[in-house]
Design brief:
The protein has about 150 residues and is mainly α. It contains 7 helices and 2 strands, in the order H-H-H-E-E-H-H-H-H. The longest helix has 17 residues, at about 110-130.
Length: about 150
């Protein structure tokens, strides 16, 4: 349902929240090695998040990445919107042109009415689940939940 790019972005933002320390930026290599994500691919993801003000990026010897706002203000939906977009919630699940929640037509795909309530639940879940909540649950698991 979410792209691998989006899953990597979520994991990277959670990693930054778990390893937050005031005035400390975390280098891309550290994040890449810790999460086993290829460095060039991760770099593009992190730069996209920084460009959208979700992260702060600093260059130089003490450079790296940090959260651009408090973890309790970053939702999964914020990350999903930046990386994958919100088509999951607006477009036809199976890609039919005549089916969309945004169109004013009586013609819907066979799964539309079944998926619509699930889509709304997913939207609410992603909109209410913050990076802070996820990081705290991961931290409280004492290593049982690995990034």
């Amino acid at each position: 349902m979410l792209s691998n790019t989006c899953k990597y972005a979520i994991r990277a933002v959670i990693y930054l929240a778990l390893n937050y320390s005031e005035n400390r930026k975390i280098g891309m290599k550290e994040i890449s090695d810790s999460l086993d994500i290829p460095t060039p691919f991760l770099g593009k993801i992190l730069q996209t998040l920084a460009k959208n003000k979700l992260l702060i990026s600093t260059k130089g010897p003490n450079g790296g990445f940090a959260l651009g706002k408090p973890a309790n203000e970053i939702t999964l939906l914020n990350i999903i919107e930046i990386v994958d977009g919100l088509d999951l919630f607006n477009e036809c699940l199976i890609g039919l042109r005549t089916c969309s929640s945004n169109t004013h037509t009586d013609v819907q795909c066979p799964i539309h009415n079944k998926f619509l309530p699930i889509s709304k639940q997913l939207y609410e879940l992603f909109n209410n689940e913050t990076i802070d909540l996820l990081a705290n649950e991961i931290d409280a698991s004492e290593g049982k939940i690995g990034l």
